[in-house]
Design brief:
The chain is α+β, with helices and mostly antiparallel strands. It has 4 helices and 7 strands. Strands 4, 5, 6 and 7 form a 4-stranded mixed sheet that branches. Strands 1-2-3 form a 3-stranded antiparallel sheet. Helix 1 crosses helix 3 (113-132). The longest helix has 20 residues, at 113-132. Mean pLDDT is 79; it is low at 1-18.
Length: 161
């Protein structure tokens, strides 16, 4: 059986998660299988969420986002209706058949950064390709910080109860 799906994109070339996404256009007609009739649009935001969730699943990843983005995201998460911040630290570019992702990552102290980076790439690529059918051409990571164990205890001591 040959794949007759025509993929067209309405996404722009900016590397943000606010684009429109990818449209998977199938053929129409009674001779075409039901699963191929019509079109499916995958939003850039959906791809960014998949990337964010897949990256956070990797052991050794403490958080995503650069310092200022993490601070603002933490405040935004505490405000009702502010969102969960799944896409914080994630930028995606989605084309006709391919996607690329840029991530800002904070790793746990003591983990081999090269290994964590490889695991993040593998997990992100597998999740995006499995869930969207897009080919992931690159996953670029910027390691912004290392989370130290004593940072948690200092943060807890500063809390008002």
């Amino acid at each position: 059986m040959t794949d007759t799906t025509n993929r067209s994109s309405s996404a722009g070339q900016d590397r943000s998660s606010g684009g429109t996404g990818t449209t998977l256009q199938g053929r129409s007609g009674v001779d075409v299988p039901a699963e191929s009739r019509g079109k499916t649009t995958i939003s850039d935001t959906v791809v960014a969420k998949i990337v964010g969730m897949a990256a956070r699943e990797v052991p050794g990843v403490h958080n995503l986002g650069a310092g200022v983005a993490r601070a603002l995201g933490a405040v935004r998460e505490r405000v009702p209706g502010g969102g969960t911040g799944v896409t914080r630290g994630v930028k995606v570019e989605v084309g006709e058949r391919q996607a690329a992702a840029d991530l800002d990552v904070v790793v746990e102290y003591g983990v081999p950064i090269v290994d964590v980076a490889g695991d993040v790439r593998s997990n992100v690529i597998a999740a995006v390709e499995r869930m969207t059918g897009l080919e992931v051409v690159e996953v670029n990571l910027t390691i912004d910080d290392v989370h130290l164990p004593e940072e948690e205890s200092e943060a807890e001591e500063g809390r008002v109860t």
